[in-house]
Amino acid sequence: QVQFVESGGGLVQPGGSLTLSCAASGSIFSIYTMGWYRQAPGKQRELVAGITSGRRTNYADSVKGRFTISRDNVKKTVYLQMNSLKPEDTAVYYCNTDPLRNPYWGQGTQVTVSS
After folding, report:
1. C-alpha distances in angstroms, 53 versus 13, 67, 99, 113?
2. What is the full DSSP assignment across 23-83?
3. How many CA atoms lie within 13 A of 17 on its CB side?
4. Phi, psi (5° rounding) for residue 99?
5. How many other CB atoms are there within 10 angstroms of residue 11's CB atom?
6. Dihedral through CA 107, CA 21, CA 88, CA 112, nearest 10?
7. pLDDT at residue 27 above 80?
8. In whole angstroms, what is the distance from residue 70 CA to residue 64 CA?
9. Residues 2-22: what's their mean pLDDT?
10. Residue (of 106, 92, 111, 109) closest to 4 by Cα position
11. CA 59 to chain centre
12. What percent of the chain has pLDDT over 70?
C-alpha cells in the first residue's frame, strides 16, 4: 500500500558527502517510523539510521557522528545526510518503515565511495 522511492546516490570520494532522499507515496507518512538500510554485495541488509514519527533518531555505531537522518512530513520525504564517507559505506541504500509490517522494498540507490 505504501511505496518508497530512493534517490541521491552516486560516486563520491572518501571523505566526501551525499544526501539521500526517500519519497513516500502513502497518505499517512507522518505516523510511520522510518529507517535507512543498506546492503553491500554478498552481505546482509543492515539498518543504519531510524527516525520515529516524533523525530527520535538512532544510528548504527558504524555511522554515528557521520550520518544524520531527518524527515519532512509535508513533503512525505525522509533524508539521509552522509558526511565523511568511507569506502565501507559503499552499498545500495533503501528506505522503509518497519519491514516486519511492510515487506516491500524499493529499488534503492547505489552509493559508491572510491578514489
Report:
1. 33, 19, 16, 31
2. EE--S-GGG--EEEEEE-TTS--EEEEEE-TT--EEE-TTTTTTEEEEEETTTTEEEEEE-
3. 8
4. -65, -15
5. 12
6. 70
7. no
8. 14
9. 97
10. 106
11. 11
12. 99
User: What whole-number distance in Å separates Cα of residue 75 and Cα of residue 3?
Assistant: 14
pLDDT 10s digits, 55-103: 999 999 999 999 999 999 999 999 999 999 999 999 999 999 999 989 9
The mean of the pLDDT values for the chain is 95
Residue 91 has which C-alpha cell?
Answer: 552499498
Q: Which residue reads 552516486 in cell numbers?
A: 10
- Strands 10-12 and 109-113, by their bridges, are parallel
User: C-alpha grid cell for residue 41?
Assistant: 554485495
| CB proximity list for 75: less than 8 A, separation 6 or greater | 23
Kindly state the cell numbers that stand for 58.
538512532
